[in-house]
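User: Second chain of the day. Same drill as before.
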Amino acid sequence: MAVLLVCFLLMTSSGRVGSSDAGSQLDAALLWVRTGKVHAPEPFGVDPEMWVRSPTGVFYQAHDIGALLLLIPAAKFGTMFVEPGYNPLRDPPPLTAKVLASLSYTMMAAGGALCFFLLLRLFIDTRRSTLLTLTFVTATMYWAYSKTAWDVMGGCVGVALLLFITATIVCRSGRRTGVSPWIYAAAGLAFAIACSFRYSLMPFLGIAIIVLALLRRSAFPRRAIVFASLALLVSLLPALYFNQVRTGSFIRPATIAAEFATKNNLNGDLLSGTSGLILSPNRGLIWYCPLMLLWLAIPSRWHRLDPEAKTLITAFGIGMAGYILMIGKLPNWHSFGWGPRYLVPVLPILFFPVALLLADMWRSSRHWLVPLVLISFLIGAAPVLVNWQLASALSPDEGRPWIARPVQQVAVWAALWSGLNGEQLAEPITTKTIARDPLVHQFPDLLLARIGERSRAGLAISMVFALCGCALVGILLRRLLLAEENPSDTKALIR
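Assistant: Same format as last time:
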């Protein structure tokens, strides 16, 4: 399954950085690689506004440390063949570094999807877990964010890993063999990974774990809690230290500095923001993933879910509700992105009960579930083929979440139609929300297509990779779907 997901997502990767946030994080990684420092005397790079002044007077990139650490290998390999005098404070990032940065996020997205597959395998058979994992990837916002570099994907992958590990703990806790202390340590590491990319997740994931421990006391003995806490503390040290040098407080992230007060202070309209994250035509979750409507069926199907699944949904659902309320209180809850960008980190929590309901309801309700899955897939596929960042930026109403129609999706479908007719996207209204490379206008927005357009040799290489990739995905998918096992064996993975 891991190879299948890697091949599939690499074939649909754009090779673009895709956001000014990620571009600025790549600038910081390049700075560290070339100078050994992550601070600069003045703001610089793709988006100078993303740098904050520290108490010592130097400037640091404002986002959490996870993205910086992830992009260091891309920065290292991306600068191996640049001119000796290359200076990231003065020169733009090399194209190779940008491509590798994008692929780093794509590979991480494949890892997150694998974690979701392993989570589902704790409760249902391989065949359905495979199909539901592919549904999670292609029929939600996950696919659009896997093709470029966005730090919300790091938070999403960390949450998926934490959800899988805690599910393993809950499912194993009643067995004679018990749970290894190293699994609890892994849970602490997964918690830290999620928070290293999205520090704002920390209190709400903490609430989820506390509720889980209260609901399943036997699964969390004192010794296990000590192991998990130590692993969490050690893993969080880089993030806490990064906060300390940037803001003077190890618990205060740089994204709440005075420079971002108008966007990140909790002084927004809670009702408008919270409801908008779910319902608004231009940012609402159900408009970008209609499958989330299955949450309405949870009460009527609750009795059919496994006890362990109920525990996980309850605990993480409470934590997720707090996170959504916090995001809804932000004036900038509708920040630029494909759909509600700030909900991407909790996407595995949102889709986990949906996947279980799809598995349970498919035979009896296929007549209306098939259209719902198909519509969600089409909504998810369009921004993969099109540079959705640029298409969105071309629409003057893109930033209005409560406008009466889904402006962003209309813009992307219009761009898809133009691309199919041989037309390229126009110049953007703003260059701040897109990757700054010369290929942002091309269609389709795929790395393999870009390689093929460069030369005949590039076309041959991209064709070979595409054909081999499709063949490998097909072979692996067939093997997974034809895997022989007892469908009632719901805990096969953890025996």
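Residues 431-436, 487-495 have pLDDT under 50 and may be disordered.

User: Great, on to the next one.
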